[in-house]
Amino acid sequence: MAASGEARAGPGSTVCVLVLGMAGSGKTALVQRLAAHLHGRHAAPYIINLDPAVHELPFPANIDIRDTVKYKEVMKQYGLGPNGSIVTSLNLFATRFDQVMKFIEKRQTASQYVLIDTPGQIEVFTWSASGTIITEALASCYPSVVVYVMDTSRSTSPVTFMSNMLYACSILYKTKLPFIVAMNKTDIIDHSFAVEWMQDFEAFQDALNQEATYVSNLTRSMSLVLDEFYSSLKVVGVSAVQGTGLDEFFEHVSKAVDEYEREYRPEYERLRKKREKVQSQRQREQLVRLQHDMGPLAMDGSPAASGSTAESSLGPSALILTRGTLEEEEGQDGGQESDADDIDHDVTEKSHEEPAFQSFLQEAKLRYPARSNH
C-alpha cells in the first residue's frame, strides 16, 4: 500500500515532510523509522536535521545544522541560555537556507521524500521567524506536509489531549499546509480512544466529566470549537519503536500531496506572483528616481532643449554634468538670445585695460626723473 502511495506522488517529484511535536513525543525516533522504511523500499530519503542541541542522531543526515552552527559557541558568544541559543542558531542557519534549497534541487530526481527533523522545543521552530522562512521556502517550491507527532501515552487525560489538539490547531493555521497528526507510541497504548474522542463529542464529554479540576471547564468549552478542526484532520497511529502504521502514514502523505496540489499550490503561486509584481514595481520606481536624478540628457543621450524650460526639467545632477556646455549648445542650436548678446566684449575689455595702462605710465615717469637726479 505504501508503494501505491509513493507512486501517486509521481516520479521525480519531491515531497517535503516537516516533523513537529512536543519535546519527548518521539520526533527523531519517528524520522529514523521513516528513513529505514523508505530505505527498505529502495527509496532513500533526503534527511535534514534542524536541531542544533541534539547530542547524537540515530540516522545519517544529509544536511546537519550542527555542521554549520555550533550551539555551545553561540551560547558563549551571545551570553544566551539553552533555548535562546537554539533560536539564534536556527536564525543564523536560516540566513543560508537558500543553499539548502539548491542541494534539495540537485537531489530531487534521486530522492522523492525530504524528511526534516525540527528542534525538541516546538515553539523554537513554530513561532520563530526562521521557522516561517524555512517553511515558506520549502512550500513555495515543493509539495510540503506538516506532521505533528503526538505522544499518545501522555494524552490519556482529556485535558492533556485537548492541549495537544489546541497546539496542533494553532500550527495548522500558522503554517497553512496539509496537516497530519501522527499519534506515536501506539506500542504502549492504542490510539483508538483519542480517535473516538475526536469523532464522538459525547464520549469526550463523558471522559471530561470525570475531571474535577478547574481547567476542565475551559476544556469543555474548547471542545465545541474544535469540532470543525477534527472533521478535516488526518490522523494515523504509528509506533516509532515497532514500525507499525507506516503504510497508512504514507497513504495520508499521498493524500496530503494531492491536497497541496489542489488547494495550496495555487495560493503559493498567487503569493509568488504578487511578490514578483511588488519587486518589479519597486524596481520601476527606483529606475524612475534614477532617471530623474540623472536627467534625460545622461540617460537618453539626446540634447536638452535650450532656455529656462530645459534647465528646469533637468535634475540637479544633470545641471552639474552639463554646466559650462549649455551656452555652447544654445549658440549652436540657435536658442533664445540672452540680454548680453549685443555687447562687444573686446571693446569692453579694452575700455577697462586703457585707464590702468595710462596710470602705470604716469607712475613710471614720476619715478624715472627721481632716479636720474639721484
SSE layout and pairing:
Layout: H1 2-8, E1 15-21, H2 27-40, E2 46-49, E3 63-64, H3 71-78, H4 82-94, H5 97-107, E4 113-117, H6 122-126, H7 129-139, E5 144-151, H8 158-175, E6 179-184, H9 192-199, H10 201-209, H11 215-225, H12 227-231, E7 234-237, H13 246-300, H14 308-313, H15 316-322, H16 326-333, H17 345-373
Parallel strand pairs: 1-4, 1-5, 2-3, 2-4, 5-6, 6-7
Helix pairs in contact: 1-13, 3-4, 4-7, 8-11, 9-10, 10-11, 13-15
Oligomer: single chain
Strand element count: 7
Spatial ordering of strands, largest sheet: 3-2-4-1-5-6-7
Number of helical elements: 17
Structural class: alpha/beta
β content, as a range? 5-15%
Report the principal-axis shape. Answer: elongated
N- and C-termini, Cα separation:
131 Å
Q: Please bin the fraction of helical residues.
A: 55-70%
**Order of helix and strand elements from N to C terminus:** HEHEEHHHEHHEHEHHHHEHHHHH
**The biggest beta sheet, please?**
7 strands, parallel
- Rounded to an integer, what's the Rg over CA atoms? 38 Å
Could you name the ranges where pLDDT drops below 50 across 5 or more consecutive residues? 1-12, 302-331, 334-341
Whole-number average pLDDT?
Answer: 80
GO molecular function, one term: GTP binding
Keywords: Acetylation, Cytoplasm, GTP-binding, Hydrolase, Nucleotide-binding, Nucleus, Phosphoprotein
Biased composition (Acidic residues): 327-344
Biased composition (Basic and acidic residues): 345-355
